[in-house]
């Protein structure tokens, strides 16, 4: 029991409790009898009132009171008699007030009051007075705040007035999170309505920044104000949805099949299963999750391609209608002539034609990307799978490229600079100035106090600054705040070890951003596979192993990756990898993947051939933290498909191993390593062999199909 | 750190079940069905379900059914779909890769600055839903005798905007959405309601801090976050939960809801045990009760404490029960 000490009751206490219990018991039975017999006399009402005053949680009694009110309002003496209607309803309000005195968190009591008020009874003043009493007694009582919003809506009290009320409450106490919350709700509403004095939003936000600054300069360790500050910052950096990158990138010249510099791509996704066409995936990556990418919102201009026949699909783990990245396939006819055929491809996103983001910010600018695709007359010979050698991930298998070669490749094909696709330069001056201003204030605060949430805010502000600069197209790639931000997260990990894992996640994301946005650093992580005779592996490998990464990000800049080594990190999931549509070889061994469901993003990688998930923690935990983040028979949306799906395996076997089944059934791996996981016994190996008919190597040995 | 006193807790739960005449039992009378759920689930997680007389429980549960088909919190009480599902707390850190992992688990934490340790915040709302738990009870006991006559009326409680009312009196709350969705899913009847609209309503309860309140515009609350995220999980709509670093991470960051220290929390729960008479309380040295006993044991299950059956984070039932009901295994 809350707040009640644990001790054996004395005899007197036991007796007193027994008397109280028997009184309440008799009240309850009297009440239930009256309720079941539909008796609504004054005496009967008194019984229910007594019961509710001593136990407001007895919900059946509130229901009874409503029946009684309806019954009594319909009696002839109440008919059109203002006096008696008023007295019936007043009695209910009085009872609610008494019940709330006993327990002001009683849902039933508050709802009963709303119900009475909806009958057009009671005055605004009276309700606000009552609320004031409860809100003073407990400033954070969310029932009272909810009721306040109900009353103000019912009585048409303007938002501006309520905003003043939150100002007062915040001045009373800076740490009143409920008041800050209501302020964000009211302000969002006023801004949306463009109410007088609340447009443009720039001025309003400048004032709000100043207001909240008072709070955290007064008490830097109180988090309510910081929270509000974070919302303001979010609003400040929220821009129009932009197309941030694509594959192939804007301005690149691509050859199909690839020339030597790009490696032999017999296994690359560029070769389609159909013999008379060559297929190229086209990927668009947006700054927000967007919906409605289809042939009517995206136009592709290219000889031999009919734009409105293209089918776009979202690249989200759960295959829903919204995602950062979208995919379609371009098919080029096979040329039999002896000459090289070059196609010019132009992709345009039309303005305001229905692309919208989940945050409600519409895609603002018309953008386009253009690239060329060369189809050479020679098609590389079909490689016989049977003669494939294993891919080895050992360090000895890789060597570095010559820097010059790498740079030229990166410049052309991987195109690490942000695709400048928007024709119109939007003025972000206010946003940049505001963020800079906040950075200065934050530094000022941190000069005098070592406050963890201040440090965290500074880290976020610096990243926001970099993001804004990259959007304005004026960022200089050698000038970024990554090093400082990494240092801040390092400090935070030490200062606040309880949140270590959170900081580590943020650290990982910034570290990756730093590596990927800096060409010199990136080159250090790009390698060549030593054995040139292996046609399976591309010459160009990205090795991000041994970096203590607990999360992966910056995927928009990694759309080109075909061979990726993420081994020896701290990854618990592969979220984000679903956009790497060119990926053919992946090593995530020696990480912290806890279940097969953590591999969900790989389901969308149709070109994946080689996968190493050895030495993780798959099967080692009783609680699967990814259970509801993947398509499973457990959730309603995909549950139906599961039942309908035709499987060669008996349902019992599918149901018992649905995690492995859901991940591997659509993959066409030829090499897989699962050794070193709790789950990797003979039974699961047999299942994997059954699910992966093309599998040639399992745990380094020939898979016997 | 001590260990979990399984036998004592079994004894305590059985004693509570028999006790009907002291003041506490009388005050809680309207949610006795909930008490049964808490007690039985706790026993099941500890692998001790056999300790109860199942015929007796089933026959009592069936008496809670109202003539309209719905269930009340006890014999003779009005039917009410869902009631307070406020797990004001308990547990869990976990999967840092998914920002929403914290919401992925029923039980959330708050840091008690005064005591310097993770504590269990109070819940004052104990009207639990009935129908769901009734169904659950029977499933728990492996008896599929749920009368399906009351399904249409859960569906009828869905409002035009997709929300659900608790009963015919119209109180609307996202908790009710969770319980309605959960109940229907357990009965394979989710297609009886408009799931798309239900999801839309839940999403309209989302706030700028990334959390969820009980109605649109209402302040975020750990219990509501659980209800809303669990409902989204069951309907396969979790992708709607924004877990961009920008918004949700902040919620995780502040000391109300965050990654927590697993070991510390296990210790705290064990410290809340009444080592003499069994039962677990909201904090060390407070009086024990059956719902905190449930929260504690369910929490230990999520924290992978040895010997506990795993509990499903969305259904708040043992995983084997969910698998049996949903997968037919």
How is the topology of this model organized?
The complex is a heterodimer of chains A (705) and B (329).
Chain A lengths: L10 H26 L5 H13 L4 H15 L8 H21 L4 H11 L6 H14 L4 H13 L4 H14 L4 H17 L7 H18 L4 H15 L5 E5 L5 E4 L20 E15 L6 E4 L11 E2 L7 E12 L7 E9 L6 E2 L9 E9 L22 E3 L2 H12 L14 H20 L3 H21 L9 H14 L4 H18 L1 H6 L1 E4 L11 E3 L19 E3 L19 E3 L22 E3 L23 H9 L6 H6 L1 H7 L6 E3 L8 H10 L5 E2 L2 E2 L3
Helix pairs in contact in A: 1-2, 2-3, 2-4, 3-4, 4-5, 6-7, 8-9, 9-11, 10-11, 10-13, 11-14, 13-14, 14-15, 15-16
Chain B lengths: L5 H13 L4 H5 L4 H14 L8 H10 L37 H4 L5 E3 L4 E3 L11 H10 L10 H6 L17 H13 L8 H10 L17 H13 L13 H6 L8 H10 L18 H13 L8 E2 L4 E2 H9 L2
Antiparallel strand pairs in B: 1-2, 3-4
Helix pairs in contact in B: 1-3, 3-6, 3-13, 6-8, 8-10
Question: How would you describe this structure to a colleague?
Answer:
Chain B: Keywords: Metal-binding, Prenyltransferase, Repeat, Transferase, Zinc. Chain B: Its EC number is 2.5.1.60. Chain B: Catalyzes the transfer of a geranylgeranyl moiety from geranylgeranyl diphosphate to both cysteines of proteins with the C-terminal sequence -XXCC, -XCXC and -CCXX. Chain B: Belongs to the protein prenyltransferase subunit beta family. The complex is a heterodimer of chains A (705) and B (329). By secondary structure, chain A is α/β, with parallel strands linked by helices. Chain A contains 21 helices and 18 strands. A 9-stranded mixed β-sheet of chain A has the order 10-11-12-13-14-15-16-17-18. In chain A, strands 1, 3, 5, 6 and 8 form a 5-stranded antiparallel β-sheet that branches. In chain A, a hairpin with a 2-residue loop joins β17 and β18. In chain A, α1 crosses α2 and α15 runs antiparallel to α16. Chain B folds into 3 domains: 99 residues, no CATH class; 86 residues, no CATH class; 89 residues, no CATH class. Helix content of chain B is 41%, strand content 3%. Chain B has a two-stranded antiparallel sheet. In chain B, strands 3-4 form a two-stranded antiparallel ribbon. The two termini of chain B are 37 Å apart. At the A-B interface, α1, α3, α5, α7 and α9 of A face α2, α11, β3 and α14 of B.
